[in-house]
User: Fold this.
Amino acid sequence: MSGAYLDFIRIRFLTMLAYRVNYYSGIAVYAINIGAYYFMWKAIYGDAERLAGFTVVQMTTYVAVSWMARAFYFNNLDREISNEIRDGSVAVQMTRPYSYLMVKMMQGLGEGLFRLLLFMAPGMIVVTLIFPIELPTDPVLWIIFFVMLWFSFLINTQINLMTGLFAFFVENNEGLMRMKRVAVDLLSGVVVPIAFFPGWASSVLQWLPFQAITYLPGSVFTERITGSAVWEALFVQAIWCAALVVPILLMWRAARKRLFVQGG
Amino acid sequence: MKIGHTLSLFREYLANYFKTKMTYRADFWVEVVSDLMFSAMNLIFIFVVFQHTPSLGDWSQAEVVFVYGYFMIPYGVFGAFVNLWNFSERYIVKGEMDRILTRPAGSLTQVLLENVDPPSLIGSLVGLGIMGAAWTQLGLPFDWYDPLVLIVMVVGSVLIYMGIYVALAAISFYSDAPTGIVPLMFNIQNYGRYPVQIYNKGIRFLLTWVLPFAFVGVYPAEFFLGRASGDGLMPWLTPAMGVIFAGIGVLVWNHGIKRYRGAGS
Assistant:
């Protein structure tokens, strides 16, 4: 059975490979984005040595790493799911002998692995050459970072599954998907690290799952968080990953009862 | 004759739009709210950043907010009339382009009309409000010609946006990427909302002359802020750039249409 799931990863990977033209533009866009934020932060820092605990170099590294991490965990599963719900093909998938949500997750992973190898790795090299970035030298930190990145993928994908499944209940969840995309970018810390938010906001954000997607791994990797706080960050990710399974399963159960196919 | 015809088509499509929307009424409001949230997020970014610095380059918070308020106006109009987000998916992959091409009206006209999205205009109104608030906060003078200039600038900005995105959408005629240009669009549209002066020469050049997003935000806003760069010339290039880029967009589209061979589905 797990062999079938592995095949979903492989097939999605190959599909991405077939349409790779798309990703050349993607690398350019990410490079431009990182560049734009780099200059933005340089202007924000001005003469300041350190803001919200980040030095300029740490900030640049944080921006680069969080965008590159985004390349790995980002996927459009919410859109795929809502499209399949709206055109009715989800009904066919439900009759098949596999877990629909698991299959989606595997497809997301195939996409993520594709981006990790063909996008994130070369992108990181390019970005390191252009901008003043300091990557950690401790191999343990790299391993922890990759574990955290894996959790980023899981949590982000879980949020995507939920957003996509909303199509069962609201017919058209276009607005919600857009809202989620913006929320994830802003609240996860890609656009601005959580530490920069005013006190009340950052304490609210610490109780939301978004920071576990980008801010925590980014902070660990840039060594803004060290020592036992690293393990706490990892723990927070694990907790969210486990907690989000509950609403997904509840939604899925309710959805199966509610399914009505619009046209098709 | 041709314009009259297009206008009557526009009326029909608009009526159609409202009929469809009233079927999914809740979604209509979700969309309006999500559009506004999107703008709110960008404002939050500005406010968060200015908690840590008194100025961005030599721009104060009120000035940056002003630029963003201005940006929201053309962006809302653009969103209402040039809604090409799903172009590749809907028209190329699903093959709806074939249907468009069998009809007498212009292909671009039809695609734009089929996707009109009036709620976007609410964003323009909010932008106008934000700009107005920043205007008073900065104590800028208000001249009789300012509203007229604003209209000219907004039209120019919308045309630039339109030109770029129509050209980008037309790329789908040449390549067959499944996710199309949506991610590209989503990422690129972040520029031109902030003072372009903070970027280095290369990026400034790119945002001014290649993908002139600086003309949908900062340059025209500079006119009202009374701090126009380039001997006061830059804001006035907005309408000119608009005409040029809209022209390029239409050219790329028309060339692409000829290359298009159908989805084969």
User: Anything to note?
Assistant: Residues 146-174 of chain B form the longest helix (29 residues). The interface with chain A takes residues 24, 26-27, 30-35, 37-38, 41, 44-45, 48-49, 51-53, 55-57, 175-181, 183-184, 186-188, 190-191, 194, 198-200, 203 of chain B (CB under 8 Å).
